[in-house]
Specification:
mainly beta, six-stranded antiparallel beta sheet, 1 helix, globular, binds zinc ion
């Protein structure tokens, strides 16, 4: 794991990780959030981070970075999906 943190902006608890693929060395930024009082609210977003931008990763900047990276993928119970490519911005609606 290259980075692991919690984004507590606006009292949310987003789990942020940056991890490197063992096969191709690509660094993947991942954000996961789930609102306990809302069923089917779990969702993750992930996107490959170019080498020169790995240093920018912090828990607080994760969403902004994900919104700027392509391709990016989303999935989870909120979308009722195992994963799909998206151009939508990170959706934090419970
Ligand atoms: Zn890979």
């Amino acid at each position: 794991m290259l980075f692991e943190g919690i984004d507590k902006t606006n009292s949310r608890y987003g789990e942020v990780t940056l991890s490197r693929c063992q096969h191709c060395s690509t660094a993947w930024l991942r954000f996961f959030i789930e609102y306990e009082s809302f069923s089917h609210s779990g969702r993750w977003y992930r996107a490959p981070v170019p080498c020169e931008r790995e240093i920018e990763v912090t828990a607080e900047r994760a969403i902004e970075m994900l919104n700027s990276l392509e391709p990016r993928f989303a999935g989870g119970s909120y979308f009722n999906s195992e994963g799909f490519e998206t151009r939508a911005r990170v959706d934090l609606q419970p």
